[in-house]
Specification:
Layout lengths: L7 H9 L8 H21 L8 H33 L9 H11 L7 H7 L12 H12 L1 H12 L5 H11 L1 E3 L3 E6 L2 E6 L13 H13 L5 E6 L19 H5 L6 H8 L1 H7 L20 E5 L2 E3 L1 H6 L4 E5 L3 E3 L2 H4 L6 H9 L1 H10 L3 E2 L11 E3 L4 H14 L2 H15 L2 H19 L2 H10 L8
Parallel strand pairs: 3-4, 4-5, 5-7, 6-8, 7-10
Antiparallel strand pairs: 1-2, 2-3, 8-9
Helix pairs in contact: 2-3, 3-6, 6-7, 6-19, 7-19, 8-9, 9-12, 11-12, 15-16
């Protein structure tokens, strides 16, 4: 620490302030907050990350590690009590992107403030200290607690506030344009078309809210019985004018530091979970046994490819129609992150070995191959996708909406109970936070994606 330019007395005072045990939350709030304040003061004495010497970088890592160990201790003792405080004993639903800042206000130093997040957002991903890791630690403990974790998942399954207005617009006009996503009624089917044309329909911070609202509107639309997800046409010269299902996360934005950590959990506890489990109601806990959610079956029309996050989405769909030349990949190793809930869901489709090969060793699955057909229900020639999709919709509608919804709910009871989902994302929250700021992520993006030469 002294080699990093920090004087002996200051370091000694910091070490003496380390809270090594917990008591009541009121006393711990004071003691731990004081330690985190001292930790921040030490970091402030060091140069910004890009300009640190090796000794200064090691000193920073020592400080961050000690502060995060203290957060783990505090939350192991108080996560449930703190969550009750932040939600008025669970009488209020607070979305996770707001909850992390409410925690920062309630317990100074536990999670970063909006100002701290804004300050780091100015840097490339490689040049950030990773204060968002503390959000991951906090959310991991909240989700690990059965009572608070279920309540947070419930909050994230509720429809967004603006969904009601867009639903009225859909009813009046038959179509809603949310910018990067459109929703359109076609008979008894509602079509959600996702587009980020410049980036091969990749997902990023500009697509997240629009997609979740669109999914809410599609599920809540009372005039339709089935929902369809498809990618729009893209601008890339190689694929210009073609529809593509999607290229996963926008790796250029990830490298540039434009994907905040909470994006991952907002995505998977939000619209991806809604594909799988439907939209919740405020007065009833989402519960497959009692059937308290609002849902409808989903069809994915897979044109071109489903890479990364878009392959993850397929694992939530009730029916996957794929073009015969389409393929799927989960290049998590190249990206240096965890591929959402794919680790939880993919083995149910392909078995453990193929799932491991896809996630850890970049195995490509051609949709028309025997392995691809474990995920894809039907294959059509690219030129015949529209007609094939019409036939799939007609078959699903003819079976009746009540039957389709009841059967998908019954399947969930055995394959992915609500608490299994919650526990998975408790582990995911912490691990993904560390992955998001791993040097390996940057090295992978520079080596595999040539990210430093890509334009935003």
């Amino acid at each position: 620490m002294q080699e990093g330019g920090l004087d002996q007395d200051t370091v000694a005072a910091w070490l003496a302030a380390v809270p090594r045990s917990t008591t009541g939350i009121a006393e711990d709030r004071r003691r731990f907050a004081q330690f985190w304040k001292q930790s921040d003061a030490l970091i402030a004495r060091l140069p910004k990350k890009p300009k640190r010497s090796r000794a200064e970088a090691e000193a920073a890592q020592t400080i961050f590690a000690a502060a995060r160990a203290a957060r783990e201790r505090f939350l192991s003792a108080h996560a449930g009590v703190l969550y009750d405080e932040l939600t008025q004993r669970r009488s209020r639903f607070v979305r996770l992107e707001d909850l992390v800042f409410a925690a920062a206000a309630a317990v100074p130093g536990l999670t970063p403030t909006p100002e701290q997040i804004a300050a780091e957002s100015e840097f490339l991903q490689r040049d950030k200290d990773g204060v968002e890791i503390d959000q991951g630690i906090f959310l991991a403990h909240v989700l690990a607690d059965e009572t608070s974790g279920r309540h947070l998942c419930h909050a994230m399954l509720l429809p967004r506030a603006s969904a009601a207005d867009f639903l009225r617009e859909l009813d009046a006009r038959g179509r809603v344009d949310l910018g990067k996503v459109t929703v359109e009624r076609r008979g008894k089917a509602v079509f959600v078309t996702a587009g980020n044309a410049r980036f091969l329909n990749a997902e990023d911070n500009t697509t997240l809210d629009a997609m979740e609202i669109a999914v809410d509107v599609a599920i809540l639309d009372p005039a339709t019985d089935v929902a369809v997800l498809r990618g729009g046409e893209v601008e890339h010269p190689k694929y210009r004018g073609q529809k593509l299902f999607g290229a996963g996360i926008n790796l250029t934005h990830l490298y540039r530091g434009l994907i905040p950590f909470t994006w991952f959990l907002r995505r998977d506890l939000g619209f991806v979970h809604k594909f799988f489990r439907g939209v919740a109601q405020p007065d009833a806990m989402p519960d497959d046994v009692h059937g308290t959610g609002i849902e409808k079956p989903w069809i994915a029309a897979l044109d071109g490819f489903a890479i990364g996050g878009h392959c993850q989405i397929l694992l939530t769909m009730d029916y996957v129609l794929a073009a015969s030349d389409a393929f799927m990949t989960l290049p998590a190793r190249k990206e240096g992150i965890i591929p959402g809930a794919a680790n939880l869901r993919m083995p149910r489709f392909t078995g453990d070995r193929i799932a491991r090969q896809a996630i850890q060793y970049e195995r490509r699955l051609d949709c028309a191959s025997p392995e691809g057909r474990l995920i894809c229900d039907e294959i059509a020639a690219p030129a015949e996708m529209d007609g094939a999709l019409d036939r799939v919709i007609a078959r699903l509608i003819s079976s009746g909406a009540v039957s389709a919804t009841s059967n998908r709910r019954a399947l969930r009871i055995g394959e992915e109970p609500f608490d299994i989902f919650r526990q998975y994302f408790s582990a995911y929250a912490r691990d993904q936070a560390y992955c998001h700021y791993s040097p390996a992520l940057i090295a992978n993006l520079e080596r595999e994606w040539n990210a430093h030469n890509r334009k935003i």
